[in-house]
Amino acid sequence: MQERIVILTGAGISAESGINTFRDAGGLWENHRIEDVATPEAFQRDPHGVQSFYNQRREQLRDPAIQPNAAHRALAELEQSLPGQVLVVTQNVDDLHERAGSRNVIHMHGELLKARCQSTETLVPADRDLDPALSCTVCGAAGCLRPHVVWFGEMPLEMERIYATLAGCERFISIGTSGNVYPAAGFVAEARASGAHTTELNLEPSEQLTAFHEHRHGRATELVPAYVR
Ligand code: BJW
Questions:
Q1: Is 110 annotated as a binding residue?
Q2: Which residue puts its alpha carbon closest to atom 80 of ligand 1?
Q3: Active-site residue, 109 included
Q4: Are residues 5 and 37 in the same domain?
Q5: Which residues lie across from 215 on neighbouring strands?
Q6: Looking at ligand 1, which atom is closest to the CA of residue 152?
Q7: Are 202 and 175 contacting, i.e. CB atoms less than 8 angstroms apart?
Q8: Whether residues 24 and 88 fall in one domain
Q9: Are residue 129 and residue 86 in the same domain, yes or no?
Q10: Residue 27 is part of which domain span?
């Protein structure tokens, strides 16, 4: 059956698991310039610096203290109670939705625990630190592996499937995202144009607040279980 509920998640859903957001006080963009770590040009200029930024974040994800929280678990339970009807589109590169039990997940900005061969597009596991000089086993060329993430100026992943699902959905729920980054920030307008009911669950009003039918503000671990159960 076609998914009827689309849930967009952002860094705020993983904040209470101990993973930094991007734009909050103390967030990743406070200590790193986007132009230095999150563009293809930065990677071309300084592959070691960019890999080191992502290696630090991989290390954080390996920390046993980092676990899915009540919001991730509530979404997994929703999917289990409505088989085939729930699609989670996450902007997050962590694996906390999967660890909580969600199965129908699109990582539109990629995955921290994968690397991609720049020659063949082959994906390889990257659960350890990545050395930019490593060669990929498929093409054998040295230095061709890059983090499997979507940087500014690059096309997010699985856009066709996302837009098709937005066009047919009846509910759109946005959780823990500031609504600053497109195309994800425009999904609420797409869903609304298709007749979906739209809800924002976020710590504070997002940039897209006025586009939603309803909004609730507070911590994801409290709002999400209360909203979806
Ligand atoms: C809590 C909480 C708690 C905290 N409970 N809540 C001018 C106009 C329009 C667009 C553009 C433009 N100029 C350039 C563009 C395009 C550009 C863009 O959007 N730029 C803007 C900055 C203006 N976008 C792109 O380049 C994208 N590609 C693209 O557009 O391709 C062309 C295209 C055209 C048409 C269709 C399709 C494509 C690519 C964007 C790639 C973004 N990449 C990153 C890095 C990924 C890898 C990595 O992780 O390192 O993705 S940037 C970063 O931002 C990351 C995130 O996924 C993304 C969104 O951040 P998010 O999740 O919203 O986090 P925060 O920190 O911003 O917000 C957290 C929220 O949680 C806050 O509101 C808190 O209040 C809340 N919160 N604790 C609940 N406990």
A1: no
A2: 219
A3: yes
A4: no
A5: 200
A6: 26
A7: yes
A8: no
A9: no
A10: 20-65+113-149
Q: Tell me the two tokens of residue 203.
A: 């710590």
Does the beta carbon of 113 lie inside 6 Å of ligand 1? no
Does the annotation list 103 as a binding residue?
Answer: no
Please indicate if the annotation marks 91 as binding a ligand. yes
Bridge partners for 173 per DSSP: 7, 199
- Asked whether residue 103 falls in the same domain as residue 117, the answer is no
Distance 209 CA to ligand 1 centre (A): 15
Phi, psi of 170 (to 5 degrees): -105, -20
Q: What is the pLDDT of residues 199-229, one digit of tens each?
A: 999 999 999 999 999 999 999 999 999 999 8
Catalytic residue (one of 109, 197, 213, 215):
109
Q: Is the interface score ipTM higher than 0.90?
A: yes
Beta carbon of 11 within 6 Å of any ligand 1 atom = yes
CA pair distance 6, 70, nearest whole angstrom: 19
Distance CA 226, CA 206 (A): 20
pLDDT tens for residues 119-137?
Answer: 888 898 887 777 766 667 6
219 and 180 fall within a common domain: yes
What mean pLDDT is predicted for residues 58-77?
96
How many domains, in total, are found in the chain? 2
CA of 216 to the centre of ligand 1 (A): 20
Same-domain status, 168 and 220? yes
